[in-house]
């Protein structure tokens, strides 16, 4: 289930909410600090796999230094 970063527009608290794709936008979210419903989702980088470390195209193809694919 994806997690979304949320910010309260009243007290500026940021928090995380887990919500299924099927219920996206249908769940009423309240700020855990002040109880306000004036909240918005923040845009953040997606988390894919087990690491946030970026890999080059050559690393993704399995190229190693000295092999013919690395040029």
Compact description:
This protein has 71 residues and is mostly beta strands. It contains one helix and three strands.
Verbal overview:
The protein has 71 residues and is mainly beta. It is 7% helix and 20% strand. A 3-stranded antiparallel sheet has the order 2-1-3, with no helix packed on it. Strand 1 (3-8) and strand 2 (14-18) form a beta hairpin. It is elongated and about 60 Å long.
Strand arrangement within the widest β-sheet reads: 2-1-3
Query: What share of the residues does DSSP label as strand, in percent?
Result: 15-25%
Largest sheet: 3 strands, antiparallel
DSSP strand count = 3
Shape, principal axes of CA atoms: elongated
Q: Which structural class do you get from the secondary structure elements? A: mainly beta
Radius of gyration: 20 Å
Low-confidence stretches: none
Which characteristics define this entry?
71 residues, 3-stranded antiparallel sheet, 1 helix
Secondary-structure blueprint:
Elements lengths: L2 E6 L5 E5 L20 E3 L15 H5 L10
Antiparallel strand pairs: 1-2, 1-3
């Amino acid at each position: 289930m994806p997690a979304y970063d949320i910010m309260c527009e009243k007290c500026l608290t940021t928090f995380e909410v887990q919500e299924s794709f099927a219920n996206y936008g249908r769940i009423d979210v309240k700020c855990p600090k002040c109880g306000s419903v004036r909240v918005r989702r923040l845009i953040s980088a997606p988390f894919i796999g087990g690491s946030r470390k970026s890999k080059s195209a050559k690393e993704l193809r399995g190229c190693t230094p000295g092999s013919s694919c690395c040029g």
